[in-house]
Amino acid sequence: LFRSMASSTLEWRLAPPLPAFEEMSCLNLGELGVCAVATAFARPQHSFIGELSLGNNNFGNKGAFALAALIKGGCAIRRLSLRDNAIGDAGAHALAETLAFNANLEELDMG
Fold first, then answer.
1. Model pLDDT for residues 58-89, shown as the tens digit of each residue
2. What distance in Å separates the CA atoms of residue 27 and residue 8, rounded to the nearest whole number?
3. Is the Cβ–Cβ distance between 33 and 60 less than 8 Å?
């Protein structure tokens, strides 16, 4: 039994890392959590993210500013979903401005 558990633990540790695109909707991350996500994805190994879903996470302009800085910094996100959050005009404007700096963003969902 112990040998079986040890081998399955080892297999898990040797597995490749999960891809950098994530479904993070409905986790109630708040401003602090979304800022942490933006900081984590700013690392060079995450320079390309296929899709990032942060819908319904109870964040507003501060989180939007952090995500705008991430995109402006060169992180290539193709699809970004920010549905059902409390992003105001200033946060939406900051995200819109990033489109001039990063042409990789194909879809921005703020519905």
1. 999 999 999 999 999 888 888 999 999 999 99
2. 29
3. no
